[in-house]
């Protein structure tokens, strides 16, 4: 039944389907014929557009690829500023230390030996030329004992200090036997005697200050004992003392204890010495000794060798009376006691004092206390006749300002100033991140210049040192870094010294440009302001 019904439905509907299809076909045929006849509106518009269009302007079309005809614009490169070399007469020029200018200032308190910078119109804008025949310095440690004569062509010290074993002229080189005025048997023997009292060997002492350093043999020989000494001496009639030190690869700057504070932070050095430095320690009510106290760490050591120590032996040589020398030594010892220093040793030519670890251990009336709120605000600030106060402590055994680990652990430990939140914006975590970043930077620098980290580059300067991470990443017996904290930057130099590194405050703007600091053929500057073989930083 179902099949029969279906077949009958198909038969009744199929004529209708056929009729509809035929009608649609006819309709489409008629529409097509109408359009073709020209009466269609769209066709008329097309004809009008064709008549109005001038196709002749496209007769020159070229359908080849045009990539080769596109002008390639190179990225613009900044033009490097080229500095010319200064006249050869400026070979020994040191900014702010010109001899002619210095002689116009008072001799009192060594003011004429301090920094006196030129006016704007006299500043140099050229590269200081190297001495004629300048040679690459000897690699360390040979460089400690030998310097090319061509690099420091001054023989006066070989004559003036001939009997004191400072320096000898041999052929075309200077030889430094390691002697000094107060250690004729050599710096090693002298340091051995100091080490019998001062814990130099175990890393407790890392940073040292040599006041009136000569050619810096004390600092040179301390290096093999992992002690970094900052040496300074004035630019006086002993030509090129500091230049000799730098050529040897030893940290040194031109400086003097005069009327202006030293460019170092408070509590910076673990040890300081005066080896016949001829500084009048009792003058100005002990002002110079008070400045040494400011930069000496709690628990640090001060060494005095030379007048007036051992006056009974040398009073005739020094052409002074016994009474005068005895009174001077007594006065020094009284000043030391008022600063909470204790004399630990006196034998032969050497006396050693130790600063107490805090003020609670002072058992007598101390010198007047300075009122300045910031003991590290020292740039071009006059010295004062007063004792710089130490940070407060809660017990007699606590080290004022915080205790330090022994070196080398001290290098990467969080410095007390950061741990106590005294450096704005710096935490223990950001300190670690800074170290990590600087290690990455140094690794990249070494890929660019494979000589970094070798003995080829001995003296290195970080001109914006921040936390000292760059120097810490480079730490090696093969080189040392002078960490400069600009006076306009955040004051972090105290942190750098707490890490067992050395550095100095400086105002780069005073020099206007850096070209006068470096010999034209010996500078190396990276994006991190790393410069090799810096000379005479004032």
From TrEMBL:
Keywords: Glycoprotein, Golgi apparatus, Membrane, Methyltransferase, Signal-anchor, Transferase, Transmembrane, Transmembrane helix
Record-level Gene Ontology MF annotations: methyltransferase activity
Gene3D superfamilies (UniProt xref): Vaccinia Virus protein VP39
Bilayer topology: Single-pass type II membrane protein; Single-pass membrane protein
InterPro entries xrefs: Put_SAM_MeTrfase, SAM-dependent_MTases_sf
GO cellular component term of the entry, any: trans-Golgi network
Presence of keyword RNA-binding: no
Annotated TM spans: 16-34
Top-level taxon: Eukaryota
EC number: 2.1.1.-
Record GO biological process: methylation
Compartments, record wording: Endomembrane system; Golgi apparatus membrane; Membrane
Family: Belongs to the methyltransferase superfamily.
UniProt name for this protein: Methyltransferase
Organism name: Populus alba x Populus x berolinensis
């Amino acid at each position: 039944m179902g099949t029969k019904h279906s077949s009958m439905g198909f038969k009744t509907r199929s004529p209708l389907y056929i009729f509809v299809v035929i009608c649609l076909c006819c309709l489409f045929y008629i529409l097509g014929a109408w359009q073709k006849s020209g009466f269609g509106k769209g066709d008329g518009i097309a004809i009008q557009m064709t008549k109005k269009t001038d196709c002749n302007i496209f007769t020159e079309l070229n359908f080849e690829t045009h990539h080769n005809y596109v002008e390639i614009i190179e990225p613009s490169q900044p033009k490097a500023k080229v500095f010319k070399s200064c006249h050869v007469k400026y070979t020994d020029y040191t900014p702010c230390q010109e001899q002619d200018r210095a002689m116009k200032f008072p001799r009192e308190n060594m003011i004429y030996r301090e920094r006196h910078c030129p006016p704007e119109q006299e500043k140099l804008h050229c590269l200081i030329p190297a001495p004629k025949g300048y040679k690459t310095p000897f690699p360390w440690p040979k460089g400690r004992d030998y310097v090319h004569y061509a690099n420091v062509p001054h023989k006066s010290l070989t004559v003036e200090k001939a009997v004191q074993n400072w320096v000898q002229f041999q052929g075309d080189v200077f030889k430094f036997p390691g002697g000094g005025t107060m250690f004729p048997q050599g710096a090693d023997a002298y340091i051995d005697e100091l080490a019998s009292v001062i814990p130099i060997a175990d890393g407790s002492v890392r940073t040292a200050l040599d006041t009136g350093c000569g050619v810096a043999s004390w600092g040179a020989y301390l290096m093999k004992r992992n002690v970094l000494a900052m040496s300074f001496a004035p630019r006086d009639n002993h030509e090129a003392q500091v230049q000799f030190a730098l050529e040897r690869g030893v940290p040194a700057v031109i400086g003097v204890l005069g009327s202006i504070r030293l460019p170092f932070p408070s509590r910076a050095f673990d040890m300081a010495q005066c080896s016949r430095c001829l500084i009048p320690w009792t003058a100005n009510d002990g002002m110079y000794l008070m400045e040494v106290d400011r930069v000496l760490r709690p628990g640090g050591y001060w060494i005095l060798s030379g007048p007036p120590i051992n006056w009974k032996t040398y009073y005739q040589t020094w052409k002074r009376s016994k009474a005068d020398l005895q009174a001077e030594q007594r006065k020094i010892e009284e000043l030391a006691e008022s600063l909470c220093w204790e004399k630990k040793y006196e034998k032969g030519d050497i006396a050693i004092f130790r600063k107490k670890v805090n003020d609670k251990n002072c058992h007598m009336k101390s010198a007047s206390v300075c009122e300045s709120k910031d003991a590290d605000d020292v740039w071009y600030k006059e010295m004062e006749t007063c004792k710089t106060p130490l940070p407060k402590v809660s017990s007699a055994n606590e080290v004022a300002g915080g205790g330090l680990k022994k070196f080398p652990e001290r290098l990467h430990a969080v410095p007390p100033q950061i741990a106590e939140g005294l450096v704005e914006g710096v935490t223990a975590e950001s300190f670690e991140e800074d170290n990590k970043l600087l290690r990455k930077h140094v690794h990249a620098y070494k890929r660019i210049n494979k000589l970094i980290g070798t003995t080829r580059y001995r003296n290195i300067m970080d001109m914006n040192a921040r936390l000292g991470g760059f120097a810490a990443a480079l730490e090696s017996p093969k080189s040392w870094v002078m960490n400069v904290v600009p006076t306009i930057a955040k004051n972090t130099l105290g942190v750098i010294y707490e890490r067992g590194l050395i550095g100095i405050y400086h105002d780069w703007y005073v020099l206007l440009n850096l070209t006068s600091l470096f010999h034209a053929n010996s500078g190396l500057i990276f994006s991190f302001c790393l410069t090799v073989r810096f000379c005479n930083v004032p």
